[in-house]
Structures are given as structure tokens and as C-alpha cells.
């Protein structure tokens, strides 16, 4: 009976869920056993025929998950149950050499790295999709004016393209981090009990190298009986970082979709989608809210991941139970967040006319800094210029007057600035600074990185 929404398939793609499926995990474990047997045969520790028999039987066609669970009920040890199940199906010399020289953590940690390898490929693929969609949005909306907001208040003028350009460079940093984490996290460990290699014999280093090369992994950098958990904590941190960036984007869309703002809206299937069970007219930002909700849970995975770094001596099992949750849960949740983010970005609805309307709400007050700077250029002390414009701004707000007319009517300002200069200062297009240069720079850099 399904308990978690992950079990029901509500969240995450079939491809990501498969990687952390019980039977797929069993196959990863069996693959490690086969690779180590192969390595033993290469250095002459066990007969070639034994390694070949182990490799032949080390798959879920022979080793059944149900049988492993039956054995585990008796042994109380899940990895040993899998070793015994593999031993049962092997014949001849193969039966004798299963799990030779290994400890449970060799197989478990290396199998986990194999899962990470496949899961990170999916994450990378989706991040690149998001980067590509954002690149198109940056170019399309490069010149579309909108209000810039700080503290929820109108602050200045920007373009929608700049907002997208900021996000695309954040995604680019995550792709860079992902490459770095692959170097540190896609590692295995085949060194036996407490990590000395004593049980593997004098060729321990070669056995580890041969077996991990066969599996497409690198040896971990100095281990005890386990791969050190700072590596896993860093990996979870990266997954959470990616989720938080997408949370930020979704949160921005939710705010911009507010009825009184309505500058951007997530896609909505008008013909079939229900926005509210009570109000038939509503179009709630449910996709973005799902992203934000799941990221709250994803952030919680950091705590146990960091708590797992300190363990007793060369190892204990206080990391084991919670890792059965945090690895699969983190990847599946982020997979869902990525898929929904792609869906939102691909179907984003933009309302430039509302952006223009919202720009006008303050009647030019968001350009007050421009007026201050113009006065300074005319010889007015900066603080005096600020106070002059602040006084005019407060008057325009309190009396609901045109900011432009208040400026024109202020003797101290009109003595310094002509009507034409005041009007030029209140032209939104004249206060974008180097916005478009910054956007173009972000586009060029992103396109260059995409070619690599």
C-alpha cells in the first residue's frame, strides 16, 4: 500500500523514480559485486570462471527482490541478504567467491554513487532545458519596460529581459557547480573493513581501481569504512540550492500574477483546468505554488545530511536509516521542481500592457532619482537636491498631483531645470542605465558556455 506521494507517482518523473526503486537499487548492488569479482580475477585472487559466473548471475533475473526480503527477515541485515541471495543462484566456483574481501559499505556506498550518476544526468539535462528556455525569454523581452521593486515598492525602471538575464546566470552557476560535484560525489570505495584493504590482499588498490573503472566511477579520496559524508552533504546542498533558485523564480511569478499587478501569469489550460472549487473564475498559480511548497521540504534534507558527517570512529549506522529517505527524496523532489519549472517557463503568459500601466501608477515618482541627479549636474548640492525632490514627491503623493507639474511649479527646481529637462528626466526609457548592455553580456556568455 502506498504511503508517500512519491510511492503513488504524484511527484517526480518515471525516469527519476526508477533510479531509486528497490529493484533498481538491488541491480546496482549486484553490479558492484560483479565488478569486484571481475577485478579479483584480473589480479589473480579468484578463478576467472568464478568471476564470470558471478557476473552472469548478478542481475535481477536471477536474484529476486522478494527472495532478498525473505532472507533479510531471518538475518536482520539487508546487504547480507542480497549477498546470500546472489550466492544461492551461483554455481560451482562462483558460489565460493561472492563478496570476497568486501564489507557492506563498499557495496552500498558504491551502489549509491551509481544512482547519483544517473540521477545527476537527469538534473543536468533539465537544468540545460531551463537555461535554453530562459535564453529565449531574455532575447524576446530584452526591451520590455517594467517596474523594478524593492521592499514590495516601486523603485525604478528595468526591463523584463534583465530579470530573466539575472536568472539565466544563476542557472549557469548551478551547471558549473554540478560539474564540480560530479568530480567529488561520483566516487566509489572498495577497501573492505575500516578502509585498509586488508581483506582484499596485496592488490587491494588495483582491485578498487579495476572494479570502479568498470562501473564508471573514481575512487573516493581517503575513506574509513565508508565514503565520508561531507561529500553527500555537499551533493544535497547543491540539490537544495538549485531548488531554492527555482523557488525564487516561482515566487516572483506568483507575486507578478497578483490580480492587482497581473504582469506575468503561469500557463493555465482554460478549456479544462479548474482554478478553484469555489470560484469558477479563478486562475490560481498552482504550479508555482507547488514548486515553492516542495522546496520547503527539500530544504529540510540539508539537516540530516549535515548531521551524518560526524560518525563514531570509522563508522556507525546513524546515517543509514535517514539516508534511505534523504537521497531518493531529494532527487525526486528536485526532479518534480525542475519539470514544473520547465512547464511554467515554456507556457509563461506576459502582459506588457499591464507593465506599462503599472509603471504609470506613481506618475513618474520612480524617476525621482533621475531628477536629483539632474539637479546635481546643474550645481545643486546632492543632499539639497534630494530634499527638494523629496518634498515635491511627498506633495504629489499627499495631494494626488502630477509629479511633473509639481516639479515645474517648484521655483527652486524650475530655476535650475527647463521644462524640457524635467520632461526628459521623467522619460522611463532614459533611465535604464546600461541595462541592455548587461543583458547582451549575459546572453553572449551563456551562448558561449552552451557551445562548450
Quick recap:
The chain has 452 residues and is mainly alpha-helical. It has helices spanning 5-8, 14-19, 22-42, 48-57, 65-75, 78-89, 93-97, 104-140, 160-185, 204-215, 229-256, 286-299, 302-307, 320-346, 352-359, 368-377, 382-399, 403-409, 411-414, 419-425, 435-451; strands at residues 145-150, 153-159, 187-188, 218-219, 264-265, 349-350. It is built from 21 helices and six strands.
What does this structure look like?
The protein is mainly alpha-helical and 452 residues long. It folds into three domains: 93 residues, Fumarase/aspartase (N-terminal domain) (Fumarase C, Chain B, domain 1, Orthogonal Bundle), CATH 1.10.275.10; 245 residues, Fumarase/aspartase (Central domain) (Fumarase C, Chain A, domain 2, Up-down Bundle), CATH 1.20.200.10; 61 residues, Fumarase/aspartase (C-terminal domain) (Ribonucleotide Reductase Protein R1, domain 1, Orthogonal Bundle). The chain contains 21 helices and six strands. The strands form three sheets. It has a two-stranded antiparallel ribbon. Strands 3-4 form a two-stranded parallel ribbon. A two-stranded antiparallel sheet has the order 5-6. The longest helix is centred in the first third of the chain and has 37 residues. The chain starts with a helix and ends with a helix. The model has no long low-confidence stretch (mean pLDDT 95).
Features of the shown structure:
Ribonucleotide Reductase Protein R1, domain 1, two-stranded antiparallel ribbon, mainly alpha, 452 residues, Fumarase C, Chain B, domain 1
Amino acid at each position: 500500500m502506498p504511503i508517500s506521494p512519491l510511492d503513488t507517482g504524484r511527484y517526480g518523473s518515471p525516469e527519476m523514480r526508477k533510479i531509486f526503486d528497490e529493484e533498481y537499487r538491488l541491480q546496482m548492488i549486484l553490479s558492484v559485486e560483479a565488478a569486484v569479482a571481475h577485478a579479483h580475477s584480473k589480479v589473480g585472487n579468484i578463478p576467472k570462471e568464478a568471476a564470470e559466473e558471478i557476473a552472469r548471475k548478478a542481475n535481477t533475473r536471477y536474484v529476486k527482490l522478494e527472495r532478498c526480503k525473505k532472507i533479510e527477515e531471518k538475518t536482520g541485515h539487508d546487504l547480507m541478504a542480497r549477498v546470500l541471495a546472489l550466492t544461492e543462484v551461483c554455481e560451482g566456483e562462483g558460489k565460493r567467491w561472492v563478496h570476497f574481501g568486501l564489507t557492506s559499505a563498499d557495496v552500498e556506498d558504491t551502489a549509491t554513487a551509481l544512482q547519483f550518476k544517473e540521477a545527476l544526468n537527469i538534473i543536468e539535462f533539465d537544468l540545460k532545458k531551463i537555461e535554453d528556455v530562459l535564453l529565449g525569454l531574455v532575447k524576446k523581452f530584452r526591451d520590455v519596460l517594467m517596474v523594478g521593486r524593492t521592499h514590495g515598492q516601486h523603485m525604478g525602471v528595468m526591463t523584463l529581459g534583465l530579470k530573466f538575464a539575472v536568472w539565466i546566470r544563476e542557472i549557469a552557476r548551478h551547471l558549473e557547480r554540478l560539474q564540480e560535484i560530479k568530480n567529488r560525489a561520483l566516487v566509489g570505495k572498495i577497501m573492505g573493513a575500516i578502509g585498509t584493504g586488508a581483506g582484499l590482499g596485496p592488490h587491494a588498490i588495483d582491485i578498487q581501481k579495476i572494479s570502479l573503472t568498470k562501473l564508471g566511477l573514481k575512487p573516493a579520496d581517503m575513506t574509513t569504512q565508508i565514503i565520508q559524508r561531507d561529500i553527500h552533504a555537499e551533493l544535497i546542498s547543491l540539490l537544495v540550492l538549485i531548488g531554492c533558485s527555482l523557488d525564487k523564480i516561482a515566487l516572483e511569478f506568483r507575486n507578478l500574477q497578483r490580480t492587482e499587478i497581473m504582469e506575468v501569469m503561469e500557463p493555465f489550460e482554460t478549456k479544462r483546468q479548474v482554478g478553484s472549487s469555489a470560484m469558477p473564475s479563478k486562475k490560481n498559480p498552482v504550479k508555482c505554488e507547488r514548486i515553492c511548497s516542495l522546496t520547503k521540504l527539500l530544504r529540510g534534507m540539508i539537516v540530516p545530511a549535515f548531521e551524518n558527517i560526524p560518525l563514531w570512529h570509522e563508522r556507525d549506522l546513524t546515517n543509514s536509516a535517514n539516508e534511505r529517505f534523504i537521497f531518493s527524496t531529494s532527487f525526486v523532489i528536485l526532479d518534480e521542481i525542475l519539470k514544473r519549472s520547465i512547464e511554467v517557463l515554456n507556457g509563461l503568459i506576459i502582459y506588457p500592457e499591464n507593465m506599462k500601466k503599472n509603471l504609470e501608477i506613481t506618475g513618474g515618482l520612480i524617476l525621482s532619482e533621475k531628477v536629483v541627479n539632474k539637479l546635481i549636474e546643474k550645481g545643486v548640492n546632492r543632499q539639497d537636491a534630494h530634499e527638494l525632490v523629496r518634498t515635491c514627491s511627498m506633495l504629489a503623493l499627499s495631494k494626488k498631483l502630477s509629479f511633473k507639474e509639481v516639479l515645474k511649479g517648484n521655483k527652486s527646481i524650475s530655476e535650475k531645470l527647463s521644462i524640457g529637462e524635467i520632461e526628459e528626466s521623467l522619460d522611463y526609457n532614459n533611465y535604464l542605465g546600461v541595462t541592455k548592455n548587461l543583458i547582451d553580456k549575459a546572453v553572449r556568455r551563456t551562448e558561449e558556455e552552451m557551445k562548450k
